[in-house]
Amino acid sequence: MSEKSGQGFLKRMISIVGPGLITAAIVMGPGSITVASKLGATTGYSSLWAVLIAAIMMAAFSKMSAVIGIMSEKSLLETVKDKYGKPVSVIIGVGGFFIIAGFQTGNNIGAGLACSTVFGGSVGMWAAIFTIVAMLFMWGFKDMYGYLEKLMTALVFIMIITFVGNIFFIKPELGEVAKGFIPTRPKDLGLIISISGTSFSVAAAAFQAYSVKSKGWKLKDLNEGLKSSYAGTAILATITVVIMITAATVLKPAGIEVNSAIDMAIQLEPFLGSFAKWLFLLGFWSASFSSFIGNAMIGGTFLADGLGIGTKMESKWSKIFASFVMILGTAAAIIFGKNPIQLLVLAQGTTMLAVPLIAIVIMLLANDKKLMQKHKNSVFLNIIGVISIVWLLFLSYNQLKQFIG
């Protein structure tokens, strides 16, 4: 390979991986960090396979949704309404809204937990403060929030790099790590449900249909765009795996089950010593607040589109419903915030209840010959899609059983 072609290859890799790293830093929320830490501390390396499976499923449904967004002249739920009737589009809109509200609860608790640990006061009080601040940014100071989001994304990125660097200090058992990627009977099904919910977000995958429209993508843009999307999914899964390995190596042998933010910070002590607590809390808070508005806007757009009153994130009704997402997350943090770590795990798990229907509809649209023409699903993609739906139905059934008691 010549020096010139080598430089060209490096530039292409940076153009693909760079946005993926940024996306991972934005998407990596407090729920993901908490569930990965708790799962590693509780089950060791044995549940790593769940993240790998979730990443493959996430990549598959992201591609389906992106192609649907390009091939359809209308928004996702307008297309659903035309194909399967308004009741289905309304149900999916409401379902998507509540899925995102579950993630938003995690953002509220994460921001509240970090500040409560440092400054005192209740998790609910801090969650309420940050919700008010976020709503002010969304309605009146959008440009200023853009700069703040970049800063917080950088802080999350620093925390992620620290987790990766920590691996070289803790020296996990590589043989046991490799065994963890072989599917086994779950030791804690509730945590498997939660890690699946945060690693394979069907609502976020479906939102690719809106994202490609806002970017003005055409079919010629799809391949390059999907490379970045796949890179983001792979990087996010890798980070989740690194946190699980860290927790399994550091926390599990010490018998620490993760009941506070400080418990999670202990993972980084081999690398950072006493400074671990402060960097982790800063990164944890940044992970919460950096996705506060973006996450809420996804939920607001789903509901507005499902009701037929707004198809874009910038629409008035999308913002109104996004405000409701934030308020619901805050209410949950205030009412149920006495055990914030458990609530963070539960919030990720509840997102599984509405996802099978969304996944089924995405699959149907992706195989609609009239809509998709020659770009309908391949046999391979359909196999992954069917396995994904069966897996989601299994997890949702068990999540419902846990709620009923």
Summarize the helices and strands and which ones pair or pack.
Elements: H1 3-27, H2 30-43, H3 48-71, H4 76-84, H5 86-119, H6 123-140, H7 142-170, H8 174-179, H9 189-199, H10 202-206, H11 208-215, H12 219-254, H13 261-265, H14 269-272, H15 276-290, H16 292-306, H17 316-336, H18 340-350, H19 355-366, H20 369-372, H21 379-404
Helix pairs in contact: 1-7, 1-12, 2-9, 2-12, 2-18, 3-9, 3-11, 3-12, 3-19, 3-21, 4-5, 5-6, 5-15, 5-16, 5-17, 5-18, 6-7, 6-17, 7-12, 7-15, 9-18, 9-21, 16-17, 19-21
If you had to describe this structure to a student in words, what would you say it looks like?
The chain is mainly α. 82% of the residues lie in helices and 0% in strands. The chain has helices at 3-27, 30-43, 48-71, 76-84, 86-119, 123-140, 142-170, 174-179, 189-199, 202-206, 208-215, 219-254, 261-265, 269-272, 276-290, 292-306, 316-336, 340-350, 355-366, 369-372, 379-404. Helix 3 (48-71) packs antiparallel against helix 12 and helix 9 (189-199) packs across helix 21. It is globular and about 60 Å long. The N and C termini lie far apart (62 Å). The model has no long low-confidence stretch (mean pLDDT 84).
Keywords for this entry:
405 residues, globular, mainly alpha
Concise summary:
It is built from 21 helices and no strands.
